[in-house]
Amino acid sequence: MKIELINENTCILYLGEAINEQVAERVKWATDRIRNELTDVLVDVVPSYTSVLICYDLGRIDRFGIKARLRQALSGITSRDAGSALAREVEVPVYYGAEVALDLADISAHSGLSPEEVVAIHSETTYRVYAIGFSPGFAYLGNTDQRIAMPRKSTPRLRVPTGSLGIADTQTAIYPSCTPGGWQIIGRTPLKMIDWETDSLALMEVGDRVRFLPISREQFLDLGGCLHEL
């Protein structure tokens, strides 16, 4: 564990170097612990792949105090403690039909697998939310099975439809709104990825576990999905 000061009211807590399940567990545990133990001095807490960004109230604590409070709150962290962090299970319905899976044929050709095999592999994996970024609600999920991993497009699309599910190397993500993007689109969900009733605004939070549930075209439409959104 390493604490690095960024400026007068911001520091970063580093919990590892590799992006993996063990470090993700530590980030989840530390984030929950910090929010519970330092709520009186916090302005914001932003977890990421291997670190946690902490913004604190200078009117309540200084840089020396925040480092001491962090060390006290996180003292004695063990692999067992980190592993006990409760991760939410999020199930996301996805329509993998060709009319919304804009790059499924390319992923199939790249992997040498049939479209049906690609969908099966993608939907049978349990993913971890490693970070939230790029745009509000955009969750970076890992790890996509190496058999269907594919690099980003060399030329990004100017508009990726809301709810599009994409692959970039060994990560998966859902576009919460219509934005430019270069991920390989494999399907679309009818779920709204931005939740205005939560503090984070995002339906998913760092540390959550995510599974994709394949649904039919009819189910997609019944759940409010849009086939022609641009």
Q: Any descriptors?
A:
230 residues, alpha+beta, four-stranded antiparallel β-sheet, elongated, seven-stranded mixed β-sheet
Written description of the protein model:
By secondary structure, the chain is α+β, with helices and mostly antiparallel strands. Helices cover 25% and strands 30% of the residues. It has helices spanning 21-37, 63-74, 79-83, 104-111, 115-123, 217-222; strands at 2-7, 10-14, 42-47, 51-56, 89-95, 127-132, 139-142, 157-160, 164-168, 171-174, 179-181, 184-188, 209-215. It has a seven-stranded mixed β-sheet with strand order 5-13-6-7-10-9-12. The protein has a four-stranded antiparallel β-sheet with strand order 1-2-4-3, with helices on one face. A two-stranded antiparallel sheet has the order 8-11. A hairpin with a 2-residue loop joins strand 9 and strand 10 (171-174). The longest helix has 17 residues, at 21-37. The N and C termini lie far apart (44 Å). The mean pLDDT is 89.
Alpha-carbon distance between the two ends: 44 Å
Strand order of the largest sheet: 5-13-6-7-10-9-12
Relative strand content: 25-35%
Query: What is the count of helical runs?
Result: 6
Provide the helix percentage. 10-25%
Order of helices and strands: EEHEEHHEHHEEEEEEEEH
Structural class by helix and strand composition: alpha+beta
> Taking all residues together, what is the mean pLDDT?
89
Which blocks of ≥5 consecutive residues have pLDDT under 50?
none
| Biggest sheet overview | 7 strands, mixed
- How many strands in all? 13
